[in-house]
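Reader question, answered in our methods column.
A reader sent in the components of a multi-part assembly and asked whether the whole thing could be modeled at once rather than chain by chain. We filled in our standard form and ran it. Here is what they sent:
COMPLEX SIZE: two components
ENTRIES:
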Amino acid sequence: MEDFEYLRHVTIGQYLPGSSMVHRLDPRTKMVVLVLIAAAITLNMSYTANIILLAISVLYVQLARVPLGYILGGVKPVLPFIAFLAAMQLLFYGNQFIGPNMPNIVLWQWGIIHVTTGSVQLVIISILRFLQLLLLASLLTNTTTTTELTHGMESLLRPLGRLGVPAHELSLVGTIALRFVPILAEQLEMIVKAQASRGAETVSKGPFHFLQAARQLAVLVVPLFMDAFRRAEDLILAMQARCYVGGKNRTNLIELHLGRADYRAIGINLVLVVLLIAARNRFLF
Amino acid sequence: MTHRTFGERTIVVAGILGAIVILLGATRLGFVAVPTPLGDATIMHLPVIIGGILEGPVVGVILGALFGIFSFLQVGSPIFKDPLVSILPRLFIGITAYLAYATFRRVSEYAALIVAAVVGTLTNTILVLGVAVLRGYLTSEAAVGYGIAAAVPEAILAVIVVVAVITAWKRIETGRGKSRV
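And here is the structure of the entire assembly that came back:
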């Protein structure tokens, strides 16, 4: 029966309730900090900067009192990908990557394969980056409810409204998407059961039955889309019947307020990120 | 103004197809076991293509962004932890699929759907791998290899699903057929 339970596997935005410092921050603060640190991570290639950034990420996870093992537990299924990419970078990137202030020393050469200090650095930095972004992105969804996220997104996009970006409408798209995930998951479960009761094989037979897999997929996905479209038409009709008008003058049930802690968090992170980006080529190793 | 291009239809269709994107990714239903070096073939970009074809490029871009953000937040291949790889290329899937559909529609509805599905899939594969090469995650030779290995099964899947979904929906919409689950 386990094969039929789709709802259980929907883990996006797994909110872990809590009352830590990070939980209590305004959702906008958390999003701004995530974007700032992501910028620092993308621009820094040195060991020093990346170790600092990893330490910061771990510190934030600790502050939120989210178990580190819980976040890292999700990495297991993708370990083969990571190993594969790391091996590629290690063996074929000898020439193309040289760290900022270090000579590129060839460690091992054999035919077209050569391992250099540069490619070793590339592998380690890539893994560190992956860990940093994984920790921070999970931290955002683990400490913020989806309602908070959509309200935060709307209020962050609002200033762009003057440029013609429809902030309210975009956040409504996000709300509808998150709201309909469980509804469609339930529908999907029903479709799978309906097809299975008619004798359809719903369990994958492995990688070498491609056409069969495509057919199995079509019998599930097509009814799923039909149901989704039907629900969309109903919702559109309901909105039109109520003369829905989006935009400017709507008020919200939840009003967001930036407190002192929020300004402090944004300030500290801004300084940190500016320093890390300004000094990105000055680290010795 | 914005209301006319951004009416209820745009919001609702983008939202509900966005829910399908998330569902396909979160349940792993969106991945079909195919022996490609970068992992399983994906159909997560299909709601983006379908949205682009049915409701135009605006819905396509929104869905592409949702797909990108989701693949950035999800635990997956480490190259997708770079927003330039995971989000930026996905914005174009809906646009190219829509343009392909609009161009070939005059020839034949079926041909247009097939071309749009293939073009949308190729946009995803080529741009993602292209940016990955530019950002130094893959060598260009390796990217071409993965591209061919991933794009062929994904394009076949895309054609099957896109044609099935859209013809089925249009038949229901015009009331010519009866289709109920």
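What stands out: Residues 2-174 of chain B form a domain with the Arp2/3 complex 21 kDa subunit ARPC3 fold (CATH 1.10.1760.20). Chain B touches chain A through 68 residues (CB under 8 Å).
Send us your own complexes using the same form.
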